[in-house]
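Whether sequence alone determines local backbone shape is best considered at the level of individual chains. Part of our work consisted of pairing the sequence of a single chain with a tokenised description of its backbone. This step matters because it turns folding into a mapping between discrete strings. For completeness, the protein is quoted in full, as a sequence line and a line of structure tokens:

_____
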Amino acid sequence: MKVILLFVALFVSLVLETTLFRIPFLASYAPNLVVLGLVMAGVFRGSRTGAVLGVLIGLTQDISYGAFLGQTAFAYAVIGSMSGYFRSLVMRESLLLGLLLTGVGTEVFAWLTYGASRLFGEAPVGIHAVVAESARSSLVTMGYAIVLYYLYRRWLRVKPRVGYEEDSTTS
């Protein structure tokens, strides 16, 4: 049930990105909320959930706004899977891990989409513009990650089951 709610949250993030954060005075402070949500899904729910949600929200974005089908879905799936994988390499999640994965995920998204666009001849900007935009987007998204990390943590973390040992097994 939480996975469906997480997809709805990612869809709302996509809508916010494509409407509210396109207003000219907000555009320079626009985070990549979908990447932030996918990173948090990967960290707190695992790489499989992150990859599946990445494909679903990426296909939604590709159908609605993409130049060709699969570019964003692939990039989002890589980000969700990568976040879950790197989370499995450490002992526990932390704000620092979330910040690091959010920054890396935003950079990976920018470069994967630019590389695919360049491969198919659809890239309208040069490499210097991509470097500047990816750095700005990464820093802004990491700033939002500081604020939103604890909300995602409270909402997505799998709580351990509390069990009590029976006295009859210890005797």
